[in-house]
Design brief:
The protein is of the alpha/beta class. It has helices at about 10-40, 60-65, 70-75, 80-85, 85-95, 145-190, 195-220, 235-250, 270-290, 345-355, 410-425, 435-445, 460-465, 505-515; strands at about 45-50, 55-60, 100-110, 115-125, 135-140, 230, 255-260, 265-270, 295-305, 310-315, 360-365, 375-380, 405, 425-430, 450, 475-480, 495-500.
Length: about 525
């Protein structure tokens, strides 16, 4: 019986699976190309391909936006050499490409309107099989906002350092100026001869001028310009800073999660200073995370309403703040960073700005579920729709004599205040410290208390003094010689409490006491 020949697949039988494999491979390549193109078009970094002699042949939308063109075709009509703000940079890049790829070189490129933009350029040559350069592939990272923020931080730290120095000078000058100016004004109210009056008026005028010079210096350094206070949306401020910082955080593996209350009330403030608050706190959170862990982390930013206050919370999952350092983090120049890593002024600036806006800031522990720790900074600012924090504080009539307690370690200052109060028909007692003041307030009742800011930093002694029977119902006036001496005040100030700066304006002091 004849055996059948072995089976051999015919040509068309073998061609079917081959064609099918090619179709699948082509489809996979098309999908891969589509995903790649989608990624390139969505990324926030500019990506381009250019011919060796300069013309762009491919660009993504991010590069079009960075260079300020209306569409991709408009940019494709230009060359890469047109983008360099300095032609010498183009020559330097060309020479470096001959030695290999160029990675993240900082320089300036030109936008369509001629303005410049700070970028970091990475570029490499793509060669053909014969070794000839076919084209150039590159990426452009727009770092203009980041550099601006870094410069803002450096400038703020320099100004804070200068401000701290001037604050010390102001304190030393304002105390004697307050006595000179105050006694001159008191003597001018008396019946004196013309020659003495002329001398006193000169003393009064020049002392007041010296006081204004000190205040102007502090205003210049600390940027305290009341005319810049406008209606501000805290949500807009937070969204802007988070948007500009998100990429830098994510490049270090730090996720930034923002949750903004759509019903957050409007506040009144200086937008630039409020941006500085958010920026400093975000940078502080980033540094805390990077110092504590190598696998990144997360920063959560929230806004919410709390009665008449707008609240901002920024928390991180870094190492947290040790209990022994909790009270020192607000001190100028105090830092846990190594030498050269920080000036210790960031949180001082933040607290100064928040206090200047009538708000308060505190820090809280943030224990994590895995035993880790972190920190949460809570900023509370008065809303525009809320009642003033010190509203209706001084409502008593001024037609009666007052019993006033002056708490001031400076003999000149307390002596002037006693003389001024006596000239107004009030009875005044002076105390050099809180212990003596508390003993007086235990046996005597006072209508008003004038307390130097150095005594009003909080603590058990101040609490005991304010709780003394003689102080119950008294109006408190805190006196200070400079902004730095108010930095440690407990914020917001308690009810029926006001703040007045030296050198005193006698009419202002009279209104605070009597009206």
């Amino acid at each position: 019986m004849a055996t059948s020949p072995p089976f051999e697949p015919r040509l068309y039988d073998r061609a079917i699976p081959i064609a099918s494999d090619r179709e699948a491979l082509t489809h996979a390549l098309e999908q891969s190309e589509e995903r790649f193109q989608l990624l390139v078009r969505r990324v926030n970094i500019g990506v381009f391909r250019a011919l060796v002699d300069g013309p762009f042949i491919e660009v993504n939308p991010a590069l079009v936006r960075t260079l300020g063109y209306a569409c991709e075709n408009e940019l494709l009509a230009r060359t890469i050499n047109d983008a360099f703000a300095d032609p010498l940079d183009a020559e330097r890049i060309q020479r470096r490409l001959e030695r290999g790829a160029v990675d993240r070189v900082s320089m300036r490129w030109k936008r369509k309107d001629g303005s410049s933009v700070s970028i970091r350029l990475s570029i490499r040559q793509v060669r053909q099989e014969d070794g000839q350069v076919a084209f150039l592939d590159g990426s452009v990272d727009d770092v203009t906002d980041r550099l601006r923020q870094q410069e803002l931080l450096r400038r703020t730290e320099r100004m804070a350092c200068l401000g701290a120095t001037l604050a010390g000078v102001a304190h030393e000058l304002n105390n004697p100026l307050a006595a000179i100016l105050g006694f001159a004004q008191l003597l001018l109210k008396k019946d004196i001869d013309a020659e003495s009056r002329l001398g006193l008026e000169t003393i009064d005028h020049e002392a007041a001028r010296a006081g204004r010079i000190v205040r102007d210096l502090l205003t210049l350094v600390r940027k305290r310009d009341a005319e810049r206070r406008v209606r501000v949306s805290l949500n807009d401020v937070v969204a802007y800073i988070v948007g500009t910082r998100r990429y830098a955080l994510e490049t270090h593996g730090i996720a930034c999660i923002a949750t903004l209350d759509p019903h957050l009330p409007t506040i009144v403030g200086d937008r630039t200073q409020l941006e500085q608050v958010v920026l400093n706190l975000l940078n502080n959170a980033e540094q805390a995370i990077r110092a504590a862990r190598d696998d990144g982390g997360s920063v959560r930013v929230r806004t919410r309403s709390d009665g008449p206050m707008a609240v901002l919370e920024i928390e991180d999952d870094g190492a947290g703040i040790p209990a022994e350092a909790r009270d020192r983090i607000w001190d100028p120049f105090w830092t846990t960073k190594g030498v050269g890593s920080g000036t210790g002024l960031g949180l001082t600036v933040v607290r100064d700005i928040v206090a200047g806006h009538g708000g308060e800031i505190r820090v809280e522990d943030l224990p994590g579920p895995d035993g880790s720790s972190g920190a949460r900074f809570v900023v509370r600012l008065p809303a525009l729709s809320g009642e003033p924090l010190d509203g209706d504080v001084f409502h008593d009539s001024a037609c009666r004599a007052l019993d006033v307690l002056v708490v001031d370690p400076d003999a000149q200052s307390s002596s002037f205040l006693a003389a001024f109060l006596g000239s107004r028909g009030h009875a005044a007692l002076a105390a050099p410290d809180l212990d003596y003041a508390t003993r007086l307030a235990t046996h005597l009742t006072f209508d008003a208390v004038l307390c130097d800011a150095s005594m009003a930093f909080g603590g058990a002694a101040l609490d005991a003094f304010r709780a003394a029977s003689g102080c119950v119902g008294a109006r408190f006036i805190i006196t200070a010689g400079d902004a730095a001496s108010t930095a440690k005040l407990r914020l917001p100030l308690p009810p029926a409490t006001a703040l007045v700066m030296r050198p005193y304006d006698l009419e202002e002091l009279r209104v605070l006491l009597e009206d």
